[in-house]
């Protein structure tokens, strides 16, 4: 499975959680008052700090773990703001065009 596949699958699952709000799901809790937008923004801040500290320690295993948390919460934020993964790809594609 390519990296692109897992990002698409994860984003689709996040969109499904947003639409269906199944109980007992952590993602659901981020889309409801149980945790909400502030919790997503706080997590992005916390995990960015943890990623920086892992990099400073040259701890690549921890970098991957914190990076995965960061990507997941970033995808939740995109979905929360009705931005799609394809729009993010279009932004990256546009920048890559010059190469
Ligand atoms: N990738 C993730 C993912 N990364 C991190 N997290 C959650 O993010 C939360 C915060 O992580 P922390 O390490 O800060 O843990 P914590 O301080 O104990 O968390 P809180 O007290 O703030 O809840 C944890 O509860 C993790 O479970 C994730 N939760 C879900 N996913 C993906 O989303 C899918 C759907 O999950 P559910 O919506 O829970 O079914 C999963 O199968 C995964 O693929």
TrEMBL record:
Keywords (A to Z) from UniProt: Amino-acid biosynthesis, ATP-binding, Cytoplasm, Histidine biosynthesis, Hydrolase, Nucleotide-binding
Any GO BP annotation: L-histidine biosynthetic process
Enzyme Commission code: 3.6.1.31
Compartments (UniProt record): Cytoplasm
GO molecular function: ATP binding; phosphoribosyl-ATP diphosphatase activity
SUPFAM superfamilies: all-alpha NTP pyrophosphatases (SSF101386)
Positions in coiled-coil regions: none
InterPro entries per the UniProt record, alphabetical: HisE (IPR008179), PRib-ATP_PPHydrolase-like (IPR021130)
Gene it is expressed from: hisE
HAMAP family reported for this sequence: HisE (MF_01020)
Family statement: Belongs to the PRA-PH family.
Protein name according to UniProt: Phosphoribosyl-ATP pyrophosphatase
Reactions catalysed, as given in the entry: 1-(5-phospho-beta-D-ribosyl)-ATP + H2O = 1-(5-phospho-beta-D-ribosyl)-5'-AMP + diphosphate + H(+)
Domain of life: Archaea
Cellular component, GO annotation: cytoplasm
Pathway where it operates: Amino-acid biosynthesis; L-histidine biosynthesis; L-histidine from 5-phospho-alpha-D-ribose 1-diphosphate: step 2/9
